[in-house]
Amino acid sequence: MKVAYFDCFAGISGDMTLGALVDAGLSFDLLKTELDKLNVPEFKLSQRRVEKHGIAGTKVDVDAQEGHVHRHLIDVLYIINNSSISDAAKEKARKVFQKLAEAEAKVHGTSINEVHFHEVGAVDAIVDVVGVVIGLELLGIEKIYASKFRFGSGRTRGAHGAMPIPVPAVVEMTKGYPAERTDIPLELVTPTGAAILTALSSGIGEQIHLKTEITGYGAGTRDVEQVPNLLRVEIGELITDSQTDSPILLETNIDDMTPEIYGYIIDRLLEAGARDAFLTPVIMKKGRPGIQLTALTDPNKEREITDLIFSETTTLGIRRIPVQRHMLERRTDTVDTPFGPIRVKIANVNGKERVTPEYDDCARIAREKNVPILDVYKAVQSP
User: Fold this and answer.
1) Using one digit for the tens of pLDDT, what is the confidence trace for 335-353?
2) What global pTM score does this model have?
3) What stretch of H or E contains 279?
């Protein structure tokens, strides 16, 4: 599997991410051709070689002509949806801006549809985000990983005036992820950079085993005394049989809810995108029997899953636990059986394949053929 690992030793921003991909071999001409498919006011994309602390990198600049414009999420999504970039790139770009909107809404105490995008709604920020997702696609990168976040300190100025570093939206987006706070008096992690990683990455701050084939350095604008102002990307193949990710475990204990609702909430959680959802009988304080409701979710789905639990159950609080998960590499295939074709999941375990039938297919065929479901399972697993 081809992956990209972003080493954020000097933080991360949208232009640094784009510069790192170009430096790692992304065709600049092809990138410009794809970005021309965006329906945005005129902009000029340029690249130049720079040096930071003796390390060469690529600085990508977006020169927009529109001036200072405030957009809402719906305006940005309209631009993305009405472009002619690939559907996969559209989906990833929407995830990034959805993540930004959710963080800004939480910070300002409003809804995501009412949030005013200031700096991140400008053409240069839109080009940075869309350019990154296009670049990942053009380079054939299937997953991205990153080092822990590295924050600066002090104050910066934005559309709302003076703000602490890291700015509130960045703090909101990076909750649950490992981070280091430094005394570097600059904004190292921008909202755009934080959104790209938290919306798209498969793991942040965890160890991965990578056979690096290409490296690239994307440069920031400023010269920083304490560290080279660069973002490094390493592109290569994972060299492990297992994959890892960093989902969020949400759990709550409930002892005052009608039992019939539990099946309903499990279905709703899975439909909303939870990786898993399950119930565990527990004994609570004063010997009261209860149910522990647990949901495993990607970080970019956490807000939606949390809101769903609050709205559909009687709970007053939810525990939030960042976890790391090891997963076997797997694929889906179809096998022919005497009962007809059946989908299977095939996992690789130490070089050996493990085949597991899809329950839905087996159950459907057992009903249609009026045969025991165990016979259907045996037909799949027989050589």
Assistant:
1) 889 998 999 988 877 778 8
2) 0.65
3) strand 276-283
